[in-house]
Known about the structure:
This protein has 13 helices and 16 strands. It is α/β, with parallel strands linked by helices and 387 residues long.
Amino acid sequence: MYQYHCLNPIADKGLCLFSGDYKKTDTLKDADAVLVRSAKMHDMELPQSVKAIARAGAGVNNIPIKDCSEKGIVVFNTPGANANGVKELVLAGMLLASRDIVGGIEWVAQQKDREDIDKLAEKQKKQFAGCEISGKKLGIIGLGAIGAMVANAASGLGMEVYGYDPYLSIDAAWNLSRTIRHSKSLDEIYTQCDYITIHVPLLDSTKQMINKAAFDKMKEGVVLLNFARDLLVDEEALIEALESGKVKKYVTDFANPLVAGREGILVTPHLGASTEESEENCAEMAVKELRDFLENGNIKNSVNFPNCDMGTCVTVGRIAITHKNIPNMISQFTKILGNEGLNIADMTNKSKGEYAYTLIDLESAASRGALDELQAVEGVAKVRVVK
């Protein structure tokens, strides 16, 4: 029997995928797995029982990744599960920035008591007029699941799309329309595009990547959209660019005192993945990841440990080891098992940065003594009997 704990409400469509071998617990105590959306986990004390955390979403900045890695806790996210919801909001943001739709709606609401509102509207509508997005150049920084969807949709709307992603995956490339122009540098995006949208993770290397130097290179009257992370944009420099006219509109999904209510900025209250479909997709993916890990030891979509898949175990036993990515680990594991007279039927070892993961199928069950010896190896975080 496995136990899981939800730190946030998780869609029932996902939780229903847990089998009868799983029990939902109201506390972290004795939980094997944790499901989370936005709850802040940095100050939480995770019990030794926790083997995995699944974030029902893409960003994991609310999870203490380094600490989890040191403890051998595998952290999953759900890349692409909410991509369509974000894509649709990005398209809406472009349309809202192209015409003063919000201003027009607000003006009509203010005139609600006027009997001649229809005639007055005809006189006033010019002040809310704008431009069409068809034929305009859109620059997309980051062609992952969301960026690729935005690129294809914008191309279908008649936009000339430029995409920049030095780490473009093969899968993402196959999913891109042939009409997308692949830019070799950010400068081409900045100097050529009428609209620019950002879809990259927040890393030390991307923090405030849209800064004064970037704004100086952009076309006059550019529209900037940010539905990825607020810290990707230097908002002090953005305000200057807005006041000078370099930036026509800034559309963001991240509210803060600097941007909220400011002229030229449209702020939505973090609505990117706030659709019923996105929440269900994320929940389903998160539960499937947890089940495959707990029941088979397989890892897919982890942010701190490598992907690893040995399918369903058909031998007597399987053990999973999370450990540091340092020399001589495998030889130590095999020596311990060999000394116990345990024959290895299959084994795989994968690494990701500082950490590694080893799955070992055995033709007979490992003794408690062998498991304790494996756990005692320097650099080993967690040893788990999968079967």
